[in-house]
Structures are given as structure tokens and as C-alpha cells.
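Quick check before the chapter quiz. The format below is the same one you will see on the exam, so make sure you can read both the input and the output lines.
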Amino acid sequence: MTEVLILGGTGWLSGRIARRWADDGAAVTCLARGARPAPAGVTLVRGDRDQPDAYDGLARGWDHVVDISSRADHVAAAVAALGAHAQRWSYISSMSVYADDATVCADESAPVHEAARPGDEYDYAAEKVAAEQQVRALGDRALIVRPGLIVGDGDPSDRFGYWAAAFARARGDSVLLPPLEGRVTQVIDVDDLAAYVITASAAGVSGAVNAIGDRHPLQDVLLRIQDAVGHRGETVIADEDWLADHGVAYWSGERSLPLWLPADMTGFMTRSNAAFHRTGGALRAIDDTIARVVADEIARGVDRERRAGLAREDERALLAELL
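Here is the expected output.
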């Protein structure tokens, strides 16, 4: 039986990986603090990766180890403790490691940010770069998966799901949109990513791979979400400078319009996914993901407090001023 250790395994992505591998018949163990339950059929080992004894009892033979941490010190300690015991090691990095956000269709050879050093102020991209360096010490046993924007039901970031909620809560009223001309979006369904981690690990794929979907015009994706929701109100596109003057942010976070990027970030959502396709990556239709996200947002509550986007009252105020 395939023995799998997932460092994490109770979060959104890592939980999907754990559950899928268990469903495929593997014996899956998760190392986590235990604040959330492990998926059904998965063994949970409680441990705190801030502590030196976190890996005690786990230094045994593993067919696959998967790590998703965004802290380089956690990754370094895991590689030191378990690297010699793993036949295959998959690290879930991020396309945020890239330093160039302008070049269209850049592949895995594109330059990355400087790696974080001990004592540096925390920076997500720099930590991921440093973590990748630690994993590369395992040579061709290591797969470094660099996802872009991960979407799907249960997404804790609220970015892609914001638009399903925005159209659903508006009912027949207007929805505020950012500039759309020339803007694109590139996402990957969480379940497609989980499947790739498993199949690529099993196939012995090594090195770095951009795990991301195909490019779509942002306008097309938002129209597809609008149609899936059944929204029949108007959409109102605001000028870029007007949005900036009114404190509306790009991409994510409080008081933002998610998925919208500055016009000069032409490479951020246009990365090459050729290696992903070449190594067995498969993508479902974007409409399938949208349907699942719409159902999930409605079930979770479209007026709930969110980590990204505009509150409906803020959106109404902006629309009133704009119109």
C-alpha cells in the first residue's frame, strides 16, 4: 500500500490532496496541530512545526511526502528530519515566487525573487523561494508545484467567489465592475490541482511546474458567472483612476475588486502552463468550476463577512456616486 505523509492535510488544498489520495487507496497520515479534523480515512498525528520534536516518530519510510508550508524554516526542518526517508517529495509553492509580472507566457525558467533569510521580515514570496531551495536539495526526488490562483468551493480567500456573491446578492440591481478591456484571468480548480499533485508525484515528475489553468478574458469569466447566477441587472464599469481615488483596491483584500490587476501586470495571469499539460495536468471546463462556486457561495451566504471584495453597502454607495 502506498504510504503518504502530508505536512498539513487539514486545510483547504492539503485536505483535498489527503482525501483524494485516501480515496485512491493510499494510507495517508497528516501532521497538523489538530485545530481542524482530518478528512475521513486519514490518520491525524498532532504536532506543532514550531517545536523541535514535531517530526518525532515520523522518520520512517514514506512513498510520498507533501508539504505546503509558506515558512522556509518549517520546510528546512522537515527536509532535514524526513528527507532521507521519502522516495518522493512534493512541495506546493506558488507562482508568487516570480519577480517578473510583465512578461506574457513566461515559463518556469523566469527569474524569481530573492530568497528570505533568517531574521528577515516575513514576505510570502521570499519565503516560498527559500523553501524551494531547501526542497531542491532532494534532487530528482522533488517536485515543486507552483500554483497560481486556486479556486473552487470552500475557497477561504473569497476572491473568485466574490463575483458569484456579488451577482447573487444584487438580484436585479446593478453590480460594479472594474475595467475589463484587455484584462485576463488564469485560475486552477482546487480539485484539478489536488489531482495533479497525486498523479505527477506518482509519475516521478521532478523540478518546478506552473500548475495553472488556461487564460480567459476576465470579461468572459465574469459574464459566465453572471449567467450562472441568473443576474439580470446592469453591470457598471468604473474607470481605473476613479476606483483608485475612491479607495478600491486591486486583486484581493478589504474593499477590493478581486481578480482585477493593474494594466502593467500583463504577465501575472498569463503564465505558461505548457509543462503542466505536458506532465499530465488536466483541467475541467471553467463552467463546471463556476457552477460549483455559485452553489457554494449561496450555501455559505452571499452577505457574509468576506476576506476580499466590497461589502454590498459599499458597492451601493460607489454605484450611487458613479451614476
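If your answer matched, good. The chain has ten helices and 14 strands.
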